[in-house]
TrEMBL record:
It comes from the Bacteria. Mg(2+) binds at S291, D353, D354. It catalyses: 5-phospho-beta-D-ribosylamine + L-glutamate + diphosphate = 5-phospho-alpha-D-ribose 1-diphosphate + L-glutamine + H2O. Gene3D superfamilies: 3.40.50.2020, Glutamine Phosphoribosylpyrophosphate, subunit 1, domain 1. [4Fe-4S] cluster binds at C244, C390, C440, C443. The gene is purF. The keyword Iron applies. The active site is at C6. CDD domains: GPATase_N, PRTases_typeI. This is Amidophosphoribosyltransferase. Residues 6-226 form the Glutamine amidotransferase type-2 domain. GO terms for biological process: 'de novo' IMP biosynthetic process; purine nucleobase biosynthetic process. Catalyzes the formation of phosphoribosylamine from phosphoribosylpyrophosphate (PRPP) and glutamine.
């Protein structure tokens, strides 16, 4: 499975801040399933926090929410892209500096973390975690020696390279920041007059908040007792944003607006473009739930072929069902997805999926269809071949593990044991979105907007020796 980095939720000036943040994080659970946390600020300016490992409803009970008073809140769900999945790395982070309480939540991935951390440690800084968000905290705290919070954040952001969306609170002020390239999304909404920040707009729908606009690349939205104002980070912005197109391909919920685009419609368009490029002679189109469903809908409509769900997902399977023994090694697959056998035997089938990364999952799926008597199996993928790892917050494998980086299209076709295989072209992908010149395509073409020499999400655990990107 491809994994994302994190989801953010911030509220400034609402009586139900903690509870609303809980539900906003719940709506964004798909963005991070390792840990969850909420920090609130009460009317006296005191910080209250609760965070832990696991899903949002596992971390927070009613008693936890009642112990989080205040009208200001920062929330975070995490999947690790730098640092291990451990309680010490759960966010938001809280620090105390000269009587000032500071909280920070971060979505993204810095590419000069080790360089900055070594510099800070050489200057006496002590780290208690192994992720890049604490580097941000140290940089902000040091910059506070001669600046207010807004200028301190601006100074810190000038030192880092890579992808970041930030929520930072100190001294009655909350600041939302998006990096100059705009790699990952951050949106502004409003509920009962209070500003609400979220990684995805699906959180606003659950809260019944009104979506206003995306935070722009390089923008700082400042919220304090005087109201709201927008400022810019230091220095000129890049000529064009480089937003992560995999948000639209895979990560974001289809009911979200991301980068000003409706995710559902983008995925349907990817299916349309894919059908225009290559439609096989088959009996029907099918997705494997829930991956590729919306692209498959668009593909079937364009190709004027039947759309069927010949594999049924068990939606009641959680993350913690009792693990099978070795003799039941296929149980983990069967318990999640089960075939409608009469729809497969003797049929020519086209699977539409959103991506192939390592290829192991697809090999298993095709093998199952063959065992069930499928006459032909064709695969259509609604994004180009993933040939390069991501440095900016998507936990792609190292290049050595990416099937499209090691093998040609005919070789992958043979490895998967399919009758035909076609990936959507880069041109077809860009025709599926409105802002075709504003996206990062590095995982497809290797053209990285921000160069990176650091490697592996565990690089801070062992001095950078883990992993290879």
């Amino acid at each position: 499975m491809i994994r994302h980095e994190c989801g953010l939720l911030g509220i400034y000036g609402h009586e139900e801040a903690a509870r609303l943040t809980y539900f906003g994080l719940y709506a964004q659970q798909h963005r991070g399933q390792e840990s969850a946390g909420i920090v609130t600020i009460d009317e006296k300016g005191l910080l209250h926090e609760h965070k832990g490992m696991g899903l949002v409803p596992d971390v927070f009970a009613e008693a936890n929410l009642q112990a989080l008073p205040g009208t200001i809140a920062l929330g975070h769900v995490r999947y690790s892209t730098t640092g291990r999945s451990a309680a010490r790395n759960a966010q938001p982070f809280v620090a105390h500096y000269k009587g000032l309480d500071i909280a920070i939540a971060h979505n993204g991935n810095l590419v000069n973390t080790m360089e900055l951390r070594e510099e800070l440690e050489n200057d006496g800084a002590i780290f208690s975690t192994t992720n890049d968000t604490e580097v941000f905290m140290h940089l902000i705290v040091r910059a506070l020696r001669g600046h207010d919070l807004v200028d301190a954040i601006r100074e810190a952001c000038a030192r880092v390279r890579g992808a970041y969306c930030l929520l930072v609170y100190a001294g009655g002020t909350m600041v939302a920041v998006r990096d100059p390239y705009g790699f990952h999304p951050l949106a502004l909404g409003r509920l009962d007059g209070a500003p609400v920040l979220a990684s995805e707009t699906c959180a606003f729908d659950l809260l019944e908040a009104d979506y206003e606009r995306p935070i722009q690349p390089g923008e700082m939205l400042i919220m304090d007792g005087k109201g709201e104002r927008s400022e810019q980070l230091r220095g000129p912005l890049p000529e064009r944003p480089r937003q992560c197109i995999f948000e639209l391909v895979y990560f974001a919920r289809p009911d979200s607006f991301v980068f000003g685009e409706q995710v559902y419609q983008c995925r349907k368009q990817m299916g349309w473009q894919l059908a225009h490029e290559s439609t096989p002679d088959v009996d029907f189109i099918m997705p494997f739930p829930d991956s590729g469903v919306y692209s498959a809908v668009g593909f079937a409509q364009c190709a004027e072929l039947p759309y069927e769900h010949a594999m049924i997902r068990n939606h009641y399977v959680g993350r913690t069902f009792i693990q099978p023994t070795q003799s039941m090694r296929n149980f983990g697959v069967r318990v999640k997805i089960n075939p409608v056998r009469s729809m497969i035997e003797g049929k020519k089938i086209c699977i539409v999926d959103d991506s192939i990364v390592r290829g192991t999952t697809m090999i298993t799926r095709v093998k199952k269809l063959r065992e069930l008597g499928a006459k032909e199996v064709h695969i259509r993928i609604s994004c180009p071949p993933v040939k390069f790892p991501c440095f900016y917050g998507i936990d792609f494998a190292s290049r050595g593990e990416l099937i499209a980086a090691k093998y040609s299209l005919p070789e992958i076709t043979r490895m998967l044991d399919v009758d035909s295989l076609h990936y959507l072209s880069i041109d077809g992908l860009l025709r599926s979105v409105m802002q075709s010149d504003s996206y990062c395509l590095a995982c497809f073409d290797g053209k990285y907007p921000v160069p990176c020499r650091e490697s592996g999400k565990l690089r801070l655990e062992c001095g950078g020796c883990c992993g290879s990107r």
